[in-house]
Structure formats: C-alpha cells, structure tokens
Amino acid sequence: MIREGLTFDDVLLVPQHSTIKSRSEVDISATLCGLKFKHPVIPANMKTITGLEMGFEICKSGGLAIIHRFMPIEEQLFIANHLIDTFGDRGVCISLGGQNEDLPAFHKFLEAGVRNFCIDVAHGDSAQCIQTLKNMRALNEQVFIIAGNVATGEGARRLWEAGASAVKVGVGPGSLCTTRIETGNGVPQLTALMDVAQVQKQLMELERTKATTYKRQFPIIADGGIKSAGDLVKALCFADMVMVGNLFAGCVETPGEIMNIDGRSFKHYVGSSTHKTNHVEGVAAIVPAKGKFGDILAKLLEGLRSGCSYQGAHNLVDLRDNPEFIRITNAGLKESHPHDVILK
User: Fold this and answer.
1) 251 labelled catalytic
2) Segment 93-111, tens digit of pLDDT
3) Which of 177, 237, 251, 308 is catalytic?
4) Kind and range of the H or E element at 294?
5) Between the CA of residue 233 and those of 64, 266, 272, 329, what are the distances in Å?
6) Segment 150-191, tens digit of pLDDT
C-alpha cells in the first residue's frame, strides 16, 4: 500500500469567519501537562541552538528551554542550575539519550532539582528508547518527560503508553536532516502530525471514560520543517507546541562565534546527529547571522496571532478545532509567495 504524504507547502488553511477585532486579542499561551508557557515556540535542542545564553533568553520570553545533550553532564548541570536559580524549574528541560547508560545522568539531574526531561533520539519508536523511558518513569512518576522522535500515530501511542508526558513528532523534516535521503525512511511532516493527532484524540476519548479525577493529557510537540510563521500556524492545528531550529540558527545568543566570510557574517549550524562521524542523519552548515532571538521570536508570534485571527481562533485550542485545509498545486505555492515583482 502506498499512502499520500503531505507537508506544509502542500496545503493552505481555508480562512474562516472571525469575530476577532485585533490579533492582539489572540491568546497564544500553551500548556503541556500543567506546565504553562507564554508562547508555543521551542527553539530546537541542538548544539548550535540552545545553550546557556539562548536558554536564558527562552526562559525570559516565557517559553520552554530544552538544553541540548551534546556536552558534558557537568556543563548541562551548570546551565540547568543557573536557569533554575533565575527562573525556577518549570521552563527548564534537559535532554538525555535513549540508552540505559543515560540513567545515571537522570539521577544526577533529579538530585540537582531538574524536573523536566527530553529523551532525544532520532528513532523514538524503538525498543531501547521505550525501555529507557519505562526505566526513567519507574524511578520517578512525577517528572515531565518528552520522548521522541516519531513519525507515526502508533509510534506515539507506544511512547505515551510507556510513560511519556509528551511526544515529539518529526523524522527527517529539518533543514539539516538527511535521514530520509540516506535511509529511505520518514513521513512528510503534516501527515505525521495528522496521524499522531488522530491517536491523541483516541487516547483522550478513552481518558474521558475513566472514573478518575485526574485526566491524563497527551501533548504533541511538532519538530522540524518550519520555514515561516505560516508553517507554525499549520503545525499548531495538530500540535500543542512546535520546535524550531533553522529560523533561530545564527541568532546572537546561539552557541558559537560569528564568522566573517567575504564581508558577510555567518554562524555554524549543525544537525543533532552530526556529532557522529558518518553524518548519516544530518549535515553541518553555516547560516547568515540573524540578530537577536527576541526579534525573530516576536515576528513569528506576530504571524501566529494573525494566522489565528484568519481562522477565527481566539486561542491555540480553538485553532485545533477542526481546521479546514485545501490542497494546492505548485502553481498555488508560487502564487502564495511574492511573485512577478523585483524585491527590494
């Protein structure tokens, strides 16, 4: 069987009747299992994106800072302690691998007061990742654990059933990722999100039938493929929050020095799997220096609010309420961009 796979450029949202007078009315706050954030944008937990300085700016913005794992544990602990001391533990998350040897680090972070974790592996729907998740959950029932990445509804179901608080969705959509080309595996991001959202709906319906006070949530984090605020809006029709890498690569606050090449400024941008010597799942690149994180985030959130207003959505929950999409052709995609003009 061959199914159709869609990504963000394949569709547009159909505008809906709106009673919103100003986009400033739109509430773009997001909640993950009781953790509330001022906005749904998560800068990627990549080694050239989220370190100490970027983590500080993310927390200051009211967002979720997920510190990358490609550094010594002592450095992760230093960053976590600094951010927790300044902002508290609710918006600080530490990335770990999906192997049993990551469990001692999990213990150390728990002792340091970290309560939010991200099991960060390329193929989250694997027996090893699921077992590691179960082991972590057995050690502490209360902590918040994001697990991923997956590209199917059933993969997400397995992680939720193993104890994941939230699931990260995306195999191969990132601008640096070569997984799909090198392995032949992956699912176009919009279809992956739709599949996972369908399973999320099933699980939440089952949860409503249980005679318990606590009703479990099954949050989705879309990871990868975001090129514009419009993509952010489309992703949030299915996801609770969205992870963004490329748009923040090159920010002043990201790790690494600014390089000058032929009179232009650049910074390194390296994929999450590019620390491996074979580079099977990611490449290394440079991107133009882009200015401050806060300015780029503000522009994204402005577009998000506008997108919600076109949908008549007063908040992100409204945005997920039966959105209507239309499939477009290559001509439609061209028409969607500025065309037949000389840009200044």
Assistant:
1) no
2) 999 999 888 999 999 999 9
3) 177
4) helix 293-310
5) 18, 28, 24, 20
6) 999 999 999 999 999 999 999 989 878 888 999 999 999 999
Identity of the amino acid at 85: D
Write the single-letter amino acid at 98.
Answer: G
**How far is residue 312 from each of residues 13, 19, 277, measured CA to CA in Å?**
12, 6, 48
Tokens matching residue 80: 């976590």
Q: Which residue has the tokens 């065309």?
A: 339
Q: What is the pLDDT of residue 284?
A: 80
The predicted pLDDT at position 277 comes to: 46
Q: Is 301 exposed, middle or buried (0-12, 13-18, 19+ CB in 10 A)?
A: buried
- Quick one: pLDDT at residue 275? 46
Q: What is the DSSP string of 98-165?
A: SSGGGHHHHHHHHHTT--EEEEE-S--SSHHHHHHHHHHHHH-SSSEEEEEEE-SHHHHHHHHHHT-S
What CA–CA distance (Å, rounded) separates 191 from 11? 11
**β-pair partners for 92:** 65
What is d(CA 87, CA 93) in angstroms, rounded to the nearest whole number? 12
Contacts of 123 (CB under 8 A, 6+ apart): 129, 149, 171
How far apart are the C-alpha atoms of 220 and 167, rounded to whole Å? 5
Residue with token string 């983590």: 55
List residues bridging with 131 in a β-sheet: none
Rounded Cα distance, 19 and 92, in Å: 36
Task: Note the pLDDT of residue 272.
Answer: 60
Q: What is the pLDDT of residue 280?
A: 53
The structure tokens listed for 339 are 């065309």
d(CA 64, CA 29): 12
Amino acid at 154: E
- Assess contact for 206 and 226: CB atoms under 8 A: no
Q: What is the pLDDT of residues 244-282, one digit of tens each?
A: 999 999 999 999 888 889 888 888 888 765 444 445 556
The DSSP H or E segment spanning 179 is helix 179-183
